Amino acid sequence: MHTITAAAAAALLTLPFVPLPGAASASTAAVADPSMGPPMGWSTRSLGCSVSESSVRQAADALAPLVPLGYRYVVIDDCWLAPQRTDGVLAPDPARFPGGMKALADHLHGKGLKLGLSLSAGTRACAGGGPGSYGSEAADARQVKDWGVDYVKYDWCNVPTADFPGQNVQQIAQALYPPMRQNLGADVVFAMNNEDGSTVPWLWGKDAGATTWRTNVHNRPIPDSYPSMVDVWEFNQLRAGNAGPGSWADPDLLQAGRGGMTETEYRTQFTLWAVGAAPLILQADPAKAPPAIVANPKVIAVNQDRLGVHGTFVRTDGWYHALAKPLANGDRAIVLFNESDRAATIGTRLGDARYRIEDLWEGTVTSSTGELAAQVPAHAALLFRVSERREQAPPLVTFEVDPGALGDDRPSVLEPGRSGEIVTRVTNTGATGRLRDLRVTLAVPDGWQATARTPARTGRLDGGDTFTVTWAVTPPAGAERGDHELTATAAFDGGSQPGAAVVTVAQAPPAGRTYVSDVPWTRVKNHFGPVEKDTSNGERAAGDGRPITIEGVTYTKGLGAHAPADIEYFTAGRCSTVEFQAGIDDEVGAAGSAGFEVWADGGRVAYSGLLTGSMPARKVTASIEGARSIRLVATNGGDNATSDHVDFADATIICT
């Protein structure tokens, strides 16, 4: 048993505890009408120009059960317009919407839903043809209101900027958006949609009466991938100070149910959008949107809270984030978000009182005298509702499985057939009572072995103390290379706490000199297409490269990539040197530029300097003595990345 003091336990947390702003600090904020929370619903974007009246009605049927939770708007995103106006007014495409928009709006209203349509501030719609509303704002607003439309997404496409000599894009937008808002009236949701951010709507959208304004300037529209989602969210957080009740920052659609992210990552997006008071508009078919994520009423309540505050950072260091959102009844919503690829402990200080802490995803209720901390899985976001109460509840427990050091964003690595060390750590974080008869168990995949090297049971754990168990974990010799999950349980009288961690099984290179292309990597990132072994990068499907050639010299071995690229290898502290010929492949001619780097355990140990497509290969030699892992990195040369076909030619590694 390893028991430490409360002060030492606090020091183990990845993020130092810092005070959160209390609810009282928001007591003077304007209170919005409870019915005017961020819009919720579904968009036809995934359907593109295959959208039709029947597909919208089918999706509406699937969305109807979510109406009691607040999902009301069915937003038809482009491709609904006829190519030309009829008698000077907008008309729906007769093939796609033969029943007309008035009948569709009536149908949706009968189900408790509302109809949204996209219009363009320019001369033509963004997709599918059809007229824009430029110069016809009053007539188009009147037309859609006559149909019963409740929501207008106003796009920025085909704008005749030549009609505004001497004005920048922002000034033009400030001339074109307000007339449509004024003609629609306050009873219609007005979503300003400028996907590339050129009109900087966050600076003036609220004053123009916009219900929502897009903040996504990185990707347009948001892709269904974790890195892109995080990029979009980070841009959105920069606009938090411009948002408020009735005028919401819009980081774009929810992706849950589309299949490009994991369940954890989809839950993270929903959490971040909820605490950011963002619109909750689904992109997936409502029938495929997972209810466990999109239909959590307590998480939705945070998003729709009538105080209308956009959650902001309490602490962030680029990987680990704590955010807080004051709520109308004096509670606070707190998010602990781990952006990295490894489980990490994140925490913050609540204040000097006793607090009720409800995990809004798991439903558990605990108490704490002022600290909130948890081990957060990779790519996960935990959401808590915190209130200052003295009700009886078990103390908050922080259960860590294989905790890493600050900045260690990769899972621990175990070798097949070799025993490795894993630590579990239980902290009585809440300090409102004593844990009795604490038992820790660790479960491993079939065929693995796990043995406690230190006692796995203790009779008591006082407030602030920590109990650490060291485990010997051995994957079998034939263990599959890649990521594996370890699960654990900390059980005590009156309760238990689950825990988990991901570890990677990898094989270090053999003794002697080995071509790197003959060694499996543990992680890889590449700009276009996959990294190729012993050929150049072809940018698309695996195996589409050519022989590696730099300034007329052909190499039979090496790696072909497209900068920026990052290729990681497990070396187990048993390798000494990496060597390769760095250069831009001849297949792009004189174009392309990049820098080549070698990183060992988080530190750069070699750099080639800038190389271009008109330069011969340059030898790079790096000492990696004692490193557990290394990375071969190619950075963009500072210009367009289109032609950056980089070669790590004749790359070898020397190990013992």
Automatic annotation (TrEMBL):
GO BP annotations listed: carbohydrate metabolic process
Gene Ontology MF terms: alpha-galactosidase activity
Reactions catalysed, as given in the entry: Hydrolysis of terminal, non-reducing alpha-D-galactose residues in alpha-D-galactosides, including galactose oligosaccharides, galactomannans and galactolipids
Domain Glycosyl hydrolase family 98 putative carbohydrate-binding module, residue spans: 510-655
Keywords (A to Z) from UniProt: Disulfide bond, Glycosidase, Hydrolase, Signal
Homology family: Belongs to the glycosyl hydrolase 27 family.
Entries under PANTHER family matching the protein: ALPHA-GALACTOSIDASE MEL1, ALPHA-GALACTOSIDASE/ALPHA-N-ACETYLGALACTOSAMINIDASE
Listed name of the protein: Alpha-galactosidase
UniProt source species: Nonomuraea diastatica
Lineage: Bacteria, Bacillati, Actinomycetota, Actinomycetes, Streptosporangiales
